[in-house]
Automatic annotation (TrEMBL):
Superkingdom as given in the UniProt entry: Bacteria
Coiled-coil ranges per UniProt: none
GO molecular function: iron ion binding; oxidoreductase activity
Provenance organism: Micromonospora pisi
Stated name of the protein: Xanthine dehydrogenase molybdenum binding subunit apoprotein
Domain Aldehyde oxidase/xanthine dehydrogenase a/b hammerhead: 19-135
Organism classification: Bacteria, Bacillati, Actinomycetota, Actinomycetes, Micromonosporales
SMART domains named in the record: Ald_Xan_dh_C (SM01008)
Keywords: Molybdenum, Oxidoreductase
UniProt xrefs under PANTHER family: ALDEHYDE OXIDASE 1-RELATED, XANTHINE DEHYDROGENASE
Length: 745
């Protein structure tokens, strides 16, 4: 029996998803279900003066109109912590509908409940809310003069400033510099399935929340904290999630509001956000700019790197996406300074978005490196090779695994980089300008701070079920965990069923920051190998077993049959043994303790990105013709799902570079394009064939299987490779995203 890990097993949930058998949160049918609709504030700053509910109250099918005047106050205080901390993780430390104050457009001001969703929407449209509006500030330009340096960011988990050496002295030694600022539009994650919660209070006051979430346990703990009840009273179920990309990493207020509404009306309640509400209700990648100063000596070695990020955040939280981690360790410069500055505006607290932070941070750094390479006349790959940090420059410690040089080597071969003409704007095919660009990719390896658990149970028919609370939002984790458990137990994948997506299952941290698969695979591996060891132990201790008295270390399991390694004819199946022993099932709990914050190694994932673009010389239209990405994500559990994740990330980098922008209407303080018609994303005809490869690196530090994750790394650097290719094609350096036709006219 060959190992299941590393094969291209099809998605075990694929048939259910494509046939419509999979039930998403907003599709669940429950007896007595009623429908809640959120009403968001029309203004971005001010006070509610009056709410006229009369017409809404008279609407057909109406059950309740809840506002700050009649909704019970929440007893808990939200405290912002990222969900990977494993604790309660509200998206912001402000909870709406507690008073008449409005801090941002779309902030919930009322909940309308009716018997059907259409009637709830109609009644909500009849609600008249009057505001006393005060001036709002919603763009970076409006608030930049009030920017400050926060002591800590990321819910207090990271400092607001990082430094080593002396940047001024390093710049003094430089023979060439670049000093550039890159600007980034705000972005929204836009998963296909909008957030939804279906909430049921039962007779014994236990709350069941069906929720579209990246972290069922985070949802349970957050709602418990906000409602002031015990987590034992809350069960969260999240079986299928239709994408998330960070928008469902934190537990936003609508979930708890749905629970409050359900308690209030005494019926099961469904609350679905519509597409427009998704732009106002679950964070976004904040509008930001990044200022980089790079100094280089005559040998092309970086003498200094200064990286300052300025972004707009909410009035409540010092949140900025952490953009400085990967750029701070990619290159071995001894002199480095990274500083976050933020300014408060009238927005919801920003949040994670795929490749959180590092996607913009590496974009800025890798474009600046391209500018530097051009300035000093060195090939962009050669400049990087001279500067890659071969040990973690923050600690001097070795990397647990790296592989970036091999990624560049392989990528350059696949792409054919060697033939590149260094001069920009020189390759023409008719009216089309052709350009090639390259960028490094990097993402921190995030270890959850707390133990991760999974449970494996083998039944006497020889089939196994393995459970952990991880959420499946399209990554393929259910499939990969089936493979991990099959190998751990010595079973074929058909005899293993993996169940995730619930807070009653063994606790796994919310799947964020590419940490999900590493964490859950570690726990599943431990649970399944411990269960195998226990079963083998039962066999060698059983006088009636052919394996009686054998050394357990001399027994292996193949296809559900335990046998002596050197005499495969001697043995018996799990099923034979358990039936004889009158044992219906055997179970093991795997508990994985992640590496400590300082494990003696630098933990990071690396890759290399290449792109070819064709730019219409007259019209400025950019087509991406080719993309090559080579990554070193450690052990690949499922080649197909990992490839898809990496490709999806790379294409999102294309989208980030050329299309996506959440446009703020500063006059209204609202997003101006909150729909999939107006928020541009690529379609199939916009994207080229994408070559994705992984190179093998063995990592014995990060977790038992050496999994470093593939969720984020694909997007990091792919936008920079495209932007650098646009420069190479046209000679124009566009220092803001997205790069559009207008920039190239
Ligand atoms: Mo992921 S964007 O860290 O939820």
């Amino acid at each position: 029996m060959s190992p299941a890990i590393g094969t291209t097993l099809d998605r075990v949930d694929g048939r259910a998803k494509v046939s419509g058998a999979a039930r998403y949160t907003a599709e669940l049918v429950l007896p007595g279900l009623v429908h809640a609709v959120l009403v968001g504030a029309r203004v971005a700053s001010g006070r509610i003066v009056s709410i006229d509910t009369g017409a809404a109250q008279r609407a057909d099918g109406l059950i309740a109109v809840l506002t700050h005047l009649n909704l019970p106050k929440i007893p808990g205080t939200p405290k912002l912590l990222p969900s990977l901390a494993g604790m309660a993780a509200p998206g912001q430390s402000y909870f709406p509908m507690q008073d008449d104050v409005v801090h941002y457009a779309g902030q919930p001001v009322a909940i309308v409940v009716a018997d059907t969703v259409e009637r709830a929407e109609h009644a909500a449209s009849l609600l008249r809310v009057d505001y006393e509006e005060t001036p709002s500030k919603t763009t970076l330009d409006q608030v930049r003069d009030q920017a400050y340096e926060p002591e800590r960011i990321f819910g207090g988990m990271l400092p607001g400033r990082f430094a080593r050496g002396d940047v001024e002295a390093g710049l003094g030694q430089a023979t060439a510099q670049v000093d550039v600022t890159y600007r980034f539009s705000a972005n929204h994650q836009n998963p296909i399935e909008p957030s939804a919660s279906t909430v049921v209070w039962d007779d014994v006051h236990r709350l069941t929340i069906y929720d579209s979430t990246q972290g069922p346990t985070a949802t349970q703990l957050t709602v418990a904290a906000l409602l002031g009840i015990s987590p034992t009273q809350i069960k969260v179920v999240s079986e299928f999630v239709g994408g998330s990309f960070g928008s469902k990493a934190m537990i936003w207020p609508h979930v708890t509001l749905a629970a409050l509404a359900a308690r209030q009306v005494g019926r099961p309640v469904r609350l679905s956000l519509n597409r427009e509400q998704m732009f106002h209700s679950c964070g976004h990648r904040e509008e930001q700019e990044q200022h980089l100063t790079l100094g280089v000596d005559a040998e092309g070695r970086l003498t200094a790197l200064r990286h300052h990020k300025l972004s707009i955040t909410s009035h409540f939280d010092d949140w900025a996406e952490t953009s400085l981690q990967s750029p701070g360790i990619l290159y071995a410069t001894p002199n480095y300074e990274g500083i976050y500055r933020i300014a408060k505006g009238n927005t919801i607290t920003p949040t994670f978005m795929r490749g959180p932070g590092e996607a913009t941070g590496i974009f800025a750094l890798e474009c600046a490196m391209d500018e530097l390479a051009e300035r000093i006349g060195v090939d962009p790959i050669e400049l990087r090779l001279r500067n890659f940090a071969d040990t973690d420059p923050t600690s001097g410690r070795p990397w647990s695994s790296n592989g970036i040089r091999e990624c560049f080597q392989r990528g350059a071969d696949l792409f054919g980089w060697a033939g590149r003409d260094p001069n920009p704007g020189t390759r023409r095919q008719g009216r089309t300008l052709i350009g090639w660009g390259v960028a490094a990719s990097a993402y921190p390896h995030v270890a959850p701070p707390n133990p991760q658990r999974a449970r494996a149970r083998l039944y006497s028919d020889g089939s196994a079920v393995v459970e952990a609370g991880v959420s499946e939002f399209g990554t393929g984790v259910t499939t990969a965990m089936t493979q991990v458990a099959a190998d751990g137990l010595g079973l074929p994948v058909e005899r293993v069923r993996f169940i995730g997506g619930g807070s009653d299952l063994p606790n796994i941290t919310a799947a964020v920051g590419s940490a999900g698969t590493g964490a859950v695979s570690a726990a599943v591996h431990l649970a399944s190998t411990q269960l195998r060891d226990e079963l083998v132990g039962r066999a060698v201790a059983d006088a009636q077993s052919p394996l009686h008295g054998a050394d357990p270390g001399a027994v292996s399991v193949e296809d559900g049959r335990m046998r002596l390694r050197d005499r495969p004819d001697v043995g018996e199946t799990y099923a034979e043994m358990l039936s004889r022993q009158f044992t219906p099932d055997v179970e093991a709990l795997g508990v994985w303790t992640p590496p400590p914050p300082d494990p003696g190694y630098g933990l990071h994932t690396f890759g290399a990105q290449f792109a070819e673009v064709a730019v219409d010389a007259d019209l400025g239209l950019i087509r991406v013709r080719r993309m090559v990405g080579v990554f070193a994500p450690g052990r690949v559990l499922n080649r197909k799902t990992a490839h898809s994740q990496l490709m999806g990330g790379m294409l999102w980098g294309l989208s980030h570079a050329l299309l996506e922008a959440s446009q703020m209407d500063a006059r209204l303080g609202r997003w101006a394009n909150p729909s999939l018609g107006d928020y541009l994303i690529p379609v199939n005809s916009d994207v080229p064939d994408v070559v994705v490869e992984t190179i093998e690196v063995t990592d014995t530090v990060v977790n038992p299987l050496g999994v470093k994750g593939v969720g984020e790394i694909g997007i990091v650097g792919s936008g920079a490779a495209i932007a650098n290719a646009v420069h190479h094609a046209t000679g124009r350096r566009v220092r803001h995203l997205p790069i559009t036709v207008e920039d190239l006219l």
